[in-house]
Amino acid sequence: MSITFKKVEHVYSENTPFSYHALKGVDLNIKTGSMTALIGHTGSGKSTLIQHINALLLPTSGEIQIEDVMITATNKPESLKPLRKKAGLVFQFPEYQLFEETILKDIIFGPKNFGIEESEAEIIAKKVLKLVGLDESYLEKSPFDLSGGQKRRVAIAGILAMDPDILILDEPTAGLDPQGAKEMLNLFKKINRSGKTIIIVSHDMNQVLEYCDDVIVMSNGKVERHESVDEIFKETEYLSSLSIDLPTITSFILQLNKHGFKIDSSIKDVDQLVKEIGGQL
Ligand SMILES: Nc1ncnc2c1ncn2[C@@H]1O[C@H](COP(=O)(O)OP(=O)(O)O)[C@@H](O)[C@H]1O
Ligand SMILES: [Mg+2]
Fold first, then answer.
1. C-alpha 275 to ligand 2 mean position (Å)
2. The model scores a pTM over 0.85
């Protein structure tokens, strides 16, 4: 299965005074089974792009192919229902995703909608709630009484309950403390290793370096780069022109190299770096 965009344009509120051209000629091919980061300024079009992958937004022109499903400007909503199960999207703002009276009802909504019996859906709900780090006492609580980070966990659980092949996460660790963010990323990595494709919007380059394989850079509605993590962080001037910070370890290596060291800037972990420095002293 692959995710392909061909000449995709998206114009919000076309032919009105509020019209906004948010995606411009996007061509993309995201590898099946990869964990791909989507980075770029606020307003560069990241959220708009990923909402095309589960057809929450339709392109104004161009086409998107998700496995055997083709998405174009003229798709009828019914024809895209199977896609909602295949590609699960966790919104940037989890409040937009939660709407039931209890967390249990919220999580079983998706699976029930795709024909799973209520009793089985409840078993799934308990399982996914545990995966996102919440215990069963939450099942009967209202999602609206939760903190921002807990709402995010529940929204993620609701999508995991549908067991999508493609998991799309829009800034999933915003509102989580560092430990919570780490737990969540480890969970996504585990899901990725089980064979699922993960697409994650992130502003945290340390996370991108540690967890992702490939990186897509967006700027002003265009995809400007699509490279491996090792390659992208070599483009220091380009990233700096977009005010994107380097991962801490990468920027440390560059500083060391300015002072005479010759260290491979694609090193990702501290132990390896320490060894390398030791060897060169
Ligand atoms: N519903 C909408 N109507 C009009 N413009 C929108 C709408 N949603 C987003 N935009 C605009 O499209 C651009 C891209 O937004 P978005 O995809 O949310 O960017 P990002 O996720 O990278 O911050 C922004 O300039 C934003 O203001
Ligand atoms: Mg966004």
1. 39
2. yes
